[in-house]
Design goal:
alpha/beta; 7-stranded mixed β-sheet; 6-stranded parallel β-sheet; 23 strands; 43% helix; binds adenosine-5'-triphosphate; DNA 3'-5' helicase; EC 5.6.2.4; helicase; nucleotide-binding; DNA_helicase_UvrD-like_C
């Protein structure tokens, strides 16, 4: 007989579960109150007995700390219970192990486990538990999961999905092959919240494989636009925190993310999954840190801006060269060259009668070659002095020691990182490949190689205690940057991105290049695109084809291309679209320009037409709700219900990098996309556009075929 067969029975069961959870909440509340009261008592006792002896104070301090720690875990439990009360579970499978005498187990699956001490049973199973993996991996029929004791095989006889909010069941979907599809379609058709949401109820099979992969040291995920890479990466973190409890905490994980806005945008997901947010940083911060924050440098955003606004062939060439593997091998050769030619030993007169011969000093430089070059001086000095005292029976003074060390240091021609770096370009016959900007500002592409040389000369900073490194937007980093990351973080890594979405086409990396830079790594692909409607995905495919991309069959409004005579007409049409948006059910509108300057200029001009606009710049630190105007670069990784891409004129979108920007902007749209231009259309707009509407908001006209 099927347990809770009907929807009515399920609803009744839900009510019972909520009651049990409520009891647990009451007990926890009591426990929280007891802890608070005890701590208060301690505090009062300490205040009113200021002359108690130090032993008693010490033992009280220990008790307070103990109470505090248990109190904190009770508070955590209370928070978790609050979440469970709202959405106790979202799925169910009935599983019978293929073993004699096995009974069917009814497994309700939710964000957290809920154990009922009364029934001495798990009433709800955490989605990350091994047994719960079957919910994502199998439909009705034969199924299996990996348990710590081996593979458990059996059959799923029932599978259901529920939508429960605030403890109320909104709907339940019965077991069928399309359970996931139905709920997925509903999830994808909903409008965006201000921040990224968790996808725990509808994780797809290919995504689940990545989330639960624990075998691979370096996992590289190449996923098409909107395939859920970022979502999956965050669920993977939540999974690892669960599966490796006791070994890894959220503080042991580090995310390298493109900017603060993106970090804020994704900051919701882990707390929604009941985990703490994870520290985040940027590539620039890491590399500049290695160089002791000594240099002024152009950041990645500034590099992209320069490429978009005033790219010179030299600038592009420098970026391209520094993103090549040839460059890395030249650097390696140069390090060897330094090893062989940068130390020129001379005799050092230590005392009136004692001279340390040059050959002996040179010999020691070679002897200690297991140390980075600049780290040898100290050890060499000590060793030489030891040998000299043995030979000459004299006592070395501190002054003599310092003198020798200083002299040895002077014999090395590589004491200044920047000078060494310049030497490298001269040595390699490419002096034109190094150029500083105003105020001796380094180019972004120079940061990683300079840090690479610094480490070869000076050694690595203190080993990082990070146990898992996550890199998003992997395509934007170059091989030499990955080489540096490899040196700095020997831990497990999850690296994800999309080679088609580079905002740095001259210095970007594919999954295979990253694999080559690391000399290891498993590449996994995600081909299904979930974000955009079929029509938008197809449109974007025609801007820049990605053979791997498989658009999800979710249909919506066709993208619109609107042509105008001049910028004024275009602007008033955009303001018309904004008015329509405000009246619609959509929650977010992104007006995505090619550059930040253009975005700022449009913001200023639109302000007199409409209110509640939010200009998102590279200095912004938080994602905002509503109508956002920003650049393609900043919009990367984000998504909007509706997107407008203005000024797609021939002159504005013309180069390789412009095309990348256009593609990134178009793939941000979930449900609706409008492209506008005046004068001549960009050659990247897919014409003829079968989706173009005849009547348009504002003054838009149907564009002529170019
Ligand atoms: N299994 C899923 N269930 C529900 N929604 C999903 C699923 N997978 C992805 N999505 C949705 O698809 C959208 C894109 O996801 P996400 O931003 O993680 O993709 P991405 O691959 O990082 O995208 P991009 O590279 O284009 O920035 C999000 O709205 C996400 O919630």
């Amino acid at each position: 007989m099927v347990f809770n067969k009907t929807e009515e029975q399920e609803k009744e069961y839900l009510r019972q579960i909520i009651n049990i959870i409520n009891n647990s909440v009451n007990n926890t509340d009591k426990s929280v109150k007891e802890h608070v009261d005890t701590l208060q008592e301690y505090k009062e006792y300490l205040w009113s007995n200021k002359d108690i002896d130090p032993h008693e104070i010490r033992s009280m301090r220990e008790s307070i700390l103990r109470h505090f720690a248990t109190g904190e875990s009770v508070i955590d439990k209370r928070k978790r219970l609050g979440k469970i009360l709202d959405i106790p579970y979202f799925g169910r499978i009935d599983f019978t192990e293929r073993k004699e005498g096995s009974e069917t187990r009814v497994l309700y699956i939710g964000i957290h486990t809920f154990y009922d001490p009364g029934k001495k049973a798990n009433l709800i199973h955490d989605w990350r538990a091994p047994i719960s993996s079957m919910f994502y991996d199998h439909e009705l029929g034969a199924a299996s999961y990996s348990s710590p004791t081996g593979e458990v095989e059996g059959d799923i006889s029932l599978k259901r999905q529920y939508r429960i909010r605030k403890g109320q069941m909104e709907y339940m979907i019965e077991n069928s092959l399309t359970v996931h599809d139905d709920v997925l379609q509903k999830e994808l058709s909903s409008n965006t919240d201000d921040k990224m949401k968790n996808i725990v109820t509808t994780i797809q099979r290919e995504q689940n494989r990545i989330i639960r992969n624990e075998d691979t040291q370096t996992l590289i995920i190449q996923g098409v636009a909107g395939s859920g890479k970022t979502s999956i990466a965050l669920h993977r973190i939540a999974y690892l925190l669960y599966a490796q409890k006791g070994e890894i905490t959220s503080k042991d994980i580090l995310i390298i993310s493109p900017n603060k806005v993106f970090a804020d945008y994704i900051s919701n997901v882990l707390p929604e999954l009941g985990e703490e947010t994870v520290p985040e940083t940027s590539m620039e911060q890491i590399l500049s840190g290695v160089l002791n924050n000594k240099y002024k440098y152009q950041n990645f955003f500034e590099q992209v801006t320069e490429l978009l606004e005033k790219p010179t062939p030299g600038f592009i060439e420098r970026i391209q060269y520094k993103a090549s593997f040839d460059f890395i091998s030249q650097l390696e050769k140069f390090i060897l060259h330094m090893e062989n030619h940068y130390f020129k030993a001379t005799d050092v007169k230590l005392t009136k009668h004692i001279t340390v011969p040059a050959e002996f000093i040179d010999e020691q430089f070679r002897r200690f070659n297991r140390y980075p070059m600049r780290q040898r001086f100290e050890t060499m000095t000590d060793y030489i002095l030891e040998m000299m005292t043995l030979k000459h029976y004299f006592k070395v003074t501190t002054t003599e020691r310092n003198l020798l060390k200083k002299e040895i240091q002077k014999m090395f021609a590589g004491n200044n990182d920047l000078q060494v770096y310049k030497d490298f370009f001269i040595w390699s016959g490419k002096p034109e490949m190094f150029k500083t900007h105003k105020n001796r500002t380094l180019e972004y592409a120079d940061l990683a190689p300079l840090a690479y040389l610094h480490v070869a000369l000076e050694g690595l900073p203190a080993p990082s205690r990070i146990k898992h490194l996550l890199i998003d937007e992997m395509q934007d980093y170059s091989p030499i940057q990955y080489k540096m990351i490899q040196k700095l973080y020997s831990c497990r890594k999850t690296i994800l991105g999309d080679a088609c979405q580079s905002v740095n086409p001259y210095g970007s990396s594919t999954a295979e290049m990253i694999q080559k830079a690391f000399v290891t790594g498993k590449v996994m692909k995600l081909c299904k695109s979930y974000r955009s409607t079929f029509e938008i995905s197809n449109f974007a495919q025609r801007i820049q084809a990605n053979e791997d991309l498989e658009a999800i069959a979710r249909h919506g409004d066709a993208p619109t291309v609107l042509s105008f005579k001049n910028p004024e007409e275009e602007l008033s049409a955009i303001s018309g679209i904004i008015t329509t948006f405000k009246k619609s059910n959509y929650k977010s509108l992104g007006i995505i320009c090619k550059t930040e300057v253009q975005a700022q200029e449009i913001t200023e001009r639109l302000k007199s037409h409409t209110d509640k606009l939010y200009f998102l710049s590279h200095q912004s630190t938080a994602f905002a709700k509503g109508i956002i105007i920003t650049s393609s670069h900043m919009a990367k990784g984000l998504e909007f219900d509706e997107v407008i891409i203005p000024q797609t004129n021939a002159s504005n979108y013309n180069t390789l990098i412009d095309k990348s920007m256009f593609y990134v902007a178009a793939t941000r749209a979930m449900h609706r996309l409008t492209i506008t231009y005046w004068d001549k259309p960009s050659r990247f707009i897919p014409f003829p556009n079968p989706y173009t509407r005849q009547s348009t908001p504002g003054n838009g006209n149907n564009p002529p075929a170019p």
